[in-house]
Design a protein that fits this description.
single chain, about 625 residues, alpha/beta, Leucine-rich repeat, LRR (right-handed beta-alpha superhelix), LRR_dom_sf, Leucine-rich repeat domain-containing protein
Amino acid sequence: MVNGRWSWLRLAGLLLAVGCASLPAPIPPPRPTAPPDPVVVAPPRPSLQAYRILPDGTSSPWGLLPAGGAAPQPLPDGDWYAEPLEPVSTPAEAQALAAVLREYRVPGLSFGEQGLPAPALLALLVEGSSVVSLHLSDTAFGDEHLAALRNAARLKALHLDGTRVTDAGLASLQGMPHLAILRLDATAVSDRGLVLLASLTTLRRLSLSGTSVSPRGLGLLAAQTELEWLDLSDTTVDDTVLASLPGDRLRTLVLSGTHVTNAGLGALRRMPALSSLGLARTAVSDSGLAHIGGLRMLDALHLGSTGVTDAGLVHLARLPVLRVLVLSKTRIRGPGVRHLAGLTRLEVLHLDDTLIGNAALRHLQGLHHLRDLELSRTAVTGSGLPALASHQELESLGLSGLALADASLASLEPLERLSRLDLSATRIGPEALKQLGSRMVLRHLDLSRTDFNDGWVATLRTFSRLQSLRAIRTLLTDLGLGQLSELRELESLQVSGNPISGSGLVPLQKLPHLVKLDLGGTWLDDNGARMLAGFEKLSWLSLAGTRLGDEALVHLPGSLLTLYLLRTKVTDAGMPALHHLPLLRELDLRETAVSEAARATLVREHGVRLMSSP
């Protein structure tokens, strides 16, 4: 009984234990995997090419911005500007570009090959950045752009030469109280526009060359007490302007091609700091030079195409720091050159198109700093060249049109720094070039209007670093043209007026640096024109005076910036091909059958500047 009762209790306990026991926790289903965060790809930052402006006014590429992965740093000290490497087409692109300019504190902006953005986008770029200087020469910049910048009060420099600015647009400059540099050369500006500049008294540099301004409109100059640089060349200004100029700070004055006379030069005595003076193509003669002799700080003087004679050169002997002297196309015969013997700082001397002879060269032997000497089209002959042997610093020498024998060029052998040599229009033969020896420093050679032909090309190989070759109106054919491909450093090749049909162009396509090619007046035919498509880096091309028509235009390389089609057979039918040249900025259609309407379309829709003069 006990055992049965125990069994029952045991069974009851087990049941109780089972009843009190907790059920195992259910296994939760796997938690759903969260989708990965979307990958955000930042748009590429806009790139710019930065340039440093050198003391001589040229620019040198420095590098790209943004600069790799490094944190933005302001550019080093100096004068800088940058160019976008892609077109600026939207507000977002303009703002992004402005941010890069701001981060690197880039002071200047240009647009080069990419073309000028619309006015509103340009305003976004300038107002959102650190830019204080705009380098817009020879672009489609016009009054609308100036109006968009009317609130850009920080601007200090506007380089607007060769643009579409007119008198009406100059009113916008009144909102730029810090403007110090203004270039308006070769624009439609006249006296009417200058009235609007009367409130600007901060100008340090003003250039109005090639405009319609007159003495009557230049009253604003009297208020420009800070003026240091003034260019009025190729205008109708006269002696009255000289009389009204504030001269205390003036350092550069260019009056070439004006109505200034000897009498007006008396005002130069009020300009003691003048260091550069341009009087070329004026009525100035010997008596006027008496006023120039007192400018003790003058280091550059241009008197080309004036009435100066040997007698007047005595006044230049009083210019102790003169470095640059241009006497081209004056009435000098030679005896007066002795007055230049004491100008020991001279570096540049141009005596081309005068009547000086070999005797005059002896007076130059003490000028040991000469770097650039022009003797072209003078009475100097090959027998006078030994007098040049002492000019060890000479880098550029012009001997065009002289009576030279092949052997006479041996006198140039000591000139080891010679990098530019003009032998055009001489009677030399290939033996003359052999007299020069192997010249690694020679960069620029002119053999135009000589007997240069295919047989000479082998001699040119000794000038392996040649960058520029002019062989205009020679006897070069396609055979020799193709052999020039061995000059791997060539950047510019001008072979206009030669019996070239185009088959020699194919080897030249491999030249890695060729950007300028002049084929004007050659026998280039449609088959030869097809070869042009292979010049992918070409930015300057002349086909002027060839027999080419509309069919040739479809083969033009898309890299072109400048194109000469003067006196060709192109018509309106060929213009669509030019619309597909994205970088084209300058075009010569003179003496063609292209209509005014078609030309206007190129200007209006593509920003092309049509050339009206060579």
